[in-house]
Write a structure and sequence with these properties.
Blueprint: E1 2-10, H1 14-21, H2 27-30, E2 34-39, E3 51-56, E4 61-70, E5 75-82, E6 87-99, E7 104-115, H3 117-143
Antiparallel strand pairs: 1-7, 2-3, 3-4, 4-5, 5-6, 6-7
Amino acid sequence: MAKVTISSVIDAPVEQVWARIRDFNGLPSWHPRMVESHIEDGKDPAAIGCVRNFQLVSGARLREKLLDFSDENFLVSYSILETPQPLTNHKATLQLRRVTDGNRTYAEWSASFDAAPEEADKLAEGMGANVFQGGFNALKSHFAGQG
């Protein structure tokens, strides 16, 4: 099983960062690689089991199922149901934590998945750099100067 974890510190209070990312259907509003998203079957985007269907800038479509969601713990977990990437058994978690020094946010995005041994490292590297760090960079840029 391949694993990847990316973390960052965002210069904004955890409540503000969570408000920006908490909508499971809202990736296009804050992540630069996502261009369109909808929740299938008209379900609530905070309902465990709902499926988001979204398109990447590249044109690829993904379907992801919400596994866990907590406003109290600033946490969202999901699994990829369909992706053009050669991976299976995917589970990811994005969690925010309060940094009291400077009223900032510690953000951690991690995933585990199965892939062919010759593909696993490349997939983990791409997921970490492009998806996870790309999202954190966009959040850091958004909150820059909003002290």
